[in-house]
């Protein structure tokens, strides 16, 4: 591995004969597989030699505090300004931690999470019994972990928690962080579920769950938060450039606006999910844990193919869309959302929702304005039932105008018709129907 990075024989012999040469080569091979450039690999090679001399690698495991101490000692030997030495110290800690973790010799520090055993038992229940996805479990862990740490800070046990303690925590946090009603409801839902589980295990006082209340959120009380279709068209036009960022973002934006995909469904799209021979794209519905097939529209396929040929880096990852900076890896939810937000700000647009989910709302609203039924829109968006699609009826101006002009003299016939329209969905839409819907959505963008 050293000969692929270093060219001078003196340097090659020095690193080959240095301490822990085999372990250093393993880490360099790992970085090369991530797609790191040769200049970065040369710098890390020198850094690894310093680590091998300063870290207590003669022990079975190394603690993070020992890594930080070695980094401070190494920083004292460096020249340059204070900012440079600080960055080099952070670089030392970063690579030393990753190197020892890869070797299996990094000792984990004790968790600072209060009531860690109770939290893990509850998360296991949520995953195995209720079937929650990993993203939901991460949100529950963060929300409940903050509350349990607060309880520990108050020097109380779970059995000593009283209703006023929960109410005081929610009131204080909602004021400090300016929580909205929806956030308060989400937090209260997590706490209620946890205390139901704790009551079944006899961890808390009986009847505590009944005292936890939250603000009322009326069903379908809000409007779909998405930009106007004209703003969506401007967003697509602005991304039709030739830079690597434009090529990648244009393909992702087409997937969101034409098919109404969620952020995770775009980010988790894999190379094998696109069938170029049959012109079919398979979308992994993470919420329903199913796969749905869509016809691959020519404009969308060309945009993805251009990204794969001209921009996408070569790396072991199978996800279609990757970062542009080494190490190459799949996009995160925050990264994808930030990209779309920056593009809106560059156009000086102020939509009610900057993220990719707002574009999904715009797609559904546009299809509704084009005359598609709720059933067809629900199939296109991957909704299991019409209940999730009913919110778009509030922005159907044509249908609302018809309702306003409706003759109410025959209420029985009207009630029968309404019951027929509320029939739940039992089957997915056909490929022909999905192609028609996608064609209308794409036609409004070109």
Can you put this structure into words, describing what you see?
It is built from 20 helices and three strands. It is mainly alpha-helical. Helix 7 (116-128) runs antiparallel to helix 8, helix 12 (244-259) runs antiparallel to helix 14 and helix 12 (244-259) crosses helix 20. The longest helix is centred in the N-terminal third of the chain and has 22 residues, at 82-103. It is globular and about 95 Å long. Mean pLDDT is 84; it is low at 421-427.
Brief overview, please?
The protein is mainly alpha-helical and 446 residues long. It is built from 20 helices and 3 strands.
Q: Please summarize the sheet with the most strands.
A: 3 strands, antiparallel
Share in β-strands = under 5%
What characteristic shape results from the CA principal axes? globular
Q: Give the class-level CATH name of the largest domain.
A: Mainly Alpha
Q: Compute the number of helices.
A: 20
Series of secondary-structure elements, N-terminal to C-terminal: HHHHHHHHHHHHHEEEHHHHHHH
Radius of gyration equals 28 Å
What's the count of strands? 3
SS-based structural class? mainly alpha
What is the CATH T-level topology of the largest domain?
A: hpI Integrase, Chain A
Unreliable stretches, pLDDT < 50, 5 or more residues? 421-427
Task: Tell me the domain tally.
Answer: 3
| Mean pLDDT, all residues | 84
Report strand order across the widest sheet: 1-2-3
Helix fraction, binned, reads: 55-70%
Q: Write the CATH homologous superfamily of the largest domain.
A: Intergrase catalytic core
């Amino acid at each position: 591995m050293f000969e692929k990075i270093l060219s001078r024989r003196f340097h090659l012999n020095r690193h080959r004969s240095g301490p822990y040469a085999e372990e250093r080569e393993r880490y360099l091979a790992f970085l090369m597989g991530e797609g790191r450039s040769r200049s970065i690999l040369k710098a890390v090679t020198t850094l690894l030699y310093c680590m091998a001399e300063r870290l207590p690698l003669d022990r079975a495991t190394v603690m993070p505090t020992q890594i930080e101490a070695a980094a401070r000692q190494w920083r004292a030997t460096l020249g340059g300004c204070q900012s440079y030495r600080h960055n080099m110290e952070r670089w030392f800690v970063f690579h030393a931690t990753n190197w020892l973790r890869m070797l299996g010799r990094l000792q984990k520090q004790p968790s600072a999470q209060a009531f860690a055993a109770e939290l893990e038992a509850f998360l296991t229940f949520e995953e195995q019994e209720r079937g929650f996805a990993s993203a939901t479990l991460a949100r529950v862990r963060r929300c409940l972990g903050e509350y349990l740490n607060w309880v520990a800070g108050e020097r109380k046990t779970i059995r000593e928690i009283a209703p006023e303690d929960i109410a005081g925590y929610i009131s204080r946090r909602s004021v400090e962080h300016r929580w909205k009603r929806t956030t308060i409801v989400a937090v209260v839902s997590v706490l209620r579920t946890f205390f139901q589980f704790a009551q079944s295990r006899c961890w808390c006082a009986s009847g505590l769950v009944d005292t936890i209340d939250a603000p009322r959120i009326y069903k379908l009380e809000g409007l779909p938060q998405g930009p106007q279709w004209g703003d969506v068209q401007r967003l697509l036009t602005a991304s039709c450039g030739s830079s690597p960022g434009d090529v990648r973002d244009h393909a992702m934006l087409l997937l969101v606006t034409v098919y109404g995909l969620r952020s995770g469904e775009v980010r988790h799209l894999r190379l094998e999910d696109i069938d170029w021979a049959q012109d079919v794209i398979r979308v992994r519905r993470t919420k329903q844990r199913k796969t749905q097939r869509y016809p691959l529209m020519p404009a969308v396929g060309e945009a993805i193919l251009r990204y794969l040929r001209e921009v996408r880096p070569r790396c072991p990852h199978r996800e279609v869309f990757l970062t542009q900076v080494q190490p190459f890896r799949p996009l995160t939810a925050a990264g994808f959302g930030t990209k779309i937000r920056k593009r809106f700000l560059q156009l000086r647009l102020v939509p009610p929702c900057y993220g990719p989910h707002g574009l999904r709302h715009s797609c559904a609203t546009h299809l509704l304005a084009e005359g598609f039924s709720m059933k067809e829109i629900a199939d296109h968006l991957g909704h299991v039932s019409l209940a999730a699609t009913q919110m778009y009826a509030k922005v159907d101006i044509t249908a609302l105008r018809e309702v306003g002009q409706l003759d109410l003299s025959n209420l029985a016939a009207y009630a029968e018709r309404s019951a027929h329209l509320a029939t739940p969905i039992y089957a997915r839409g056909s490929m022909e129907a999905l192609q028609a819907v996608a064609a209308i959505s794409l036609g409004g963008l070109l």
